[in-house]
Amino acid sequence: MKAFCRCTSMNLTWKSMVEQVRQDRPYAAFVMELNRRIALAAPPARFEQGSNPVLYWPGLIVFASVALGLAFLVVRALQADTKAGAAFVGCFLMLMLWQGGNFFRRNRPGVYRPEALPADLLPKV
After folding, report:
1. Could you tell me the residue ranges of all domains in the chain?
2. Is residue 37 helix, strand or coil?
């Protein structure tokens, strides 16, 4: 039987309804210790990061296609001299690139060794 480890915890604690407290150092220590103990307990364990590749890669293709389509709409709106429409679609495109780009950058699938944790797995401390 093979062991499997996928780390997906939060490094924030809600202090009140609107205030969050970052737990970067304790979270990083927890993830490092968790990976170390799993590696000791189950030597053939497979350590993965990110989203499921079956969902990630098609999602990235759809994301890139929609982004290119919106960029094309911005260009066509500027050619038609409709600056308000181009600005609206352009703002939506920028918001989508910011949010979706961060999601796909942070959730890229991969495999790692427990003694060499990837930089994307741990918060910057």
Report:
1. 1-50+109-125, 52-108
2. helix
